[in-house]
Amino acid sequence: MSTLSLAVRDSSTMLRRNLLHARRYPSLTLNLLLTPVMLLLLFVYIFGDVMSAGMGGADRDAYVAYLVPGLLLMTIGSTVVGTAVSVSNDMSEGIIARFRTMAIHRPSILVGHVVGSVLQSVASVVLVGAVGVAIGFRSTDATAVEWLAAFGLLALFALALTWIAVGMGLVSPNAEAASNNALPLIFLPLISSTFVPIDAMPGWFQPIAEYQPFTPAIETLRGLLLGTEIGHNGWLAVAWCAGLTVLGYVWSNKTFGRDPKE
Question: String of b and e for 239-257 (b: at least 16 CB within 10 Å)?
Fold first, then answer.
């Protein structure tokens, strides 16, 4: 069997393994998914009128349209935390040591985690998007190409954060540490343009919110779905995704390739 065929076969096997784990133990994914859903409902129905009034007198429907794109990307950040925990569990419970003794394509173990996590992230985004539509979110004249580009951006962002989460899981001694190490993936959307525009923030804080991975992706997604100005954010979002993917891939494979300490 060729190296490529072996890699595809073993990666498919590891993907099935991770999807079965997600199906049999859905509590972690559901708990992480509750965070963006609860924030969506909280900021629409509790803070919606106040927040929309602070954004130039917009109504609640306008604030829903503003909020949902950011929450979709926050959903990805929340979902991949489960990947860090899952990878850490595999490393600490001995199954990886067992895999190392078997005649399998080593990178397929990580590929299974990554592909499974991206699929879970996409499913989570669809669910949160459905909740957004149910409470009033509507896209504004987005074409089929723009919808396809929005979906591609979400998938690319999920891939980038997943590789970072895998690296976090590999360097964590246990599941609790992995969960704590991955907290920035949930925290960063809170200090981005998810909830309020950048220019409404204090001047000293605006560069922090603007020059981080989530804000360019959020503004690009808003532009694709709502017709707002994208500007340079599209290129920044793609650059962040590419950079984080390469960083996470190299970090994860280098860490995973080390021989375990005796």
Answer: ebbeebbeebbebbbebbe
